[in-house]
Design goal:
This protein has 8 helices and 2 strands, in the order H-H-H-H-H-E-H-H-E-H. With 187 residues, the chain is mostly helical. The protein has one domain: P-loop containing nucleotide triphosphate hydrolases (Rossmann fold), CATH 3.40.50.300. The chain has a two-stranded parallel ribbon with strand order 1-2. Helix 1 packs antiparallel against helix 3, helix 4 runs antiparallel to helix 5 and helix 4 crosses helix 7.
């Protein structure tokens, strides 16, 4: 269900067929997708003791709908508490290269997706530079505000170097979590 909601939101044909999607509707649909994913996938996996990886979560809504669409962080964070029961990731890896590099990569990824699947996720990539400047700056603000949870990787190193950095961060966080578990079991 969540994937179907997300597909409608991201497909540029949605606007062509349905007209412009109101920012509030876009926000509500993003949270509907997230709530469904929490119930169907994330929470059951966490209950089994699994590690869960997500490619997007509430930080994305705060950046895109909150800053990009001008709805504000407060609304996004309040909706997160209400709809997602304030479930937060233990670690967020924020890959944040310079804005123009990010846009180029996202548009190239969308082209490959369209060629492979026959549909595109171009609705966001068509936005202008002002929109993406607000999104980019909001991601920076989230990282400043949530410095214990968010680790920023903000360079344009080769993919192998970025992958090595990600692995280093994840291993350190897992080791930290294991050490905290051991300490709490001792007490």
């Amino acid at each position: 269900m969540g994937d179907r909601i997300r597909a409608v939101l991201l497909d540029s044909r949605s606007e062509a067929e349905l007209g412009s999607i109101a920012p509030e509707a876009e926000m509500a649909l993003m949270f509907a997708d997230r709530a469904q994913s929490l119930r169907e996938v994330i929470l059951p996996a966490l209950e089994r003791g699994a590690i869960v990886l997500c490619d997007r979560y509430t930080d994305s809504s705060e950046a895109y709908q909150g800053a990009g669409r001008g709805l504000g962080s407060e609304r996004i964070l309040a909706l997160h508490k209400a709809v997602c029961n304030d479930v937060q990731p233990g670690l967020t890896l924020l890959l944040l290269p310079p804005l123009q590099s990010s846009l180029h990569r996202a548009r190239r990824r969308n082209e490959r997706h369209a060629q492979k699947n026959g549909s595109d996720e171009n609705r966001f990539e068509r936005e202008g530079d002002d929109f993406y400047t607000r999104v980019h700056e909001q991601y920076r603000e989230i990282a400043r505000r949530e410095e214990k949870r968010v680790v920023v990787i903000a360079d344009e190193a080769p993919i192998e170097a970025i992958a090595a950095r990600i692995l280093e961060v994840v291993r350190a966080r897992l080791a930290e979590g294991a050490a905290n578990t051991e300490r709490s079991e001792i007490q």
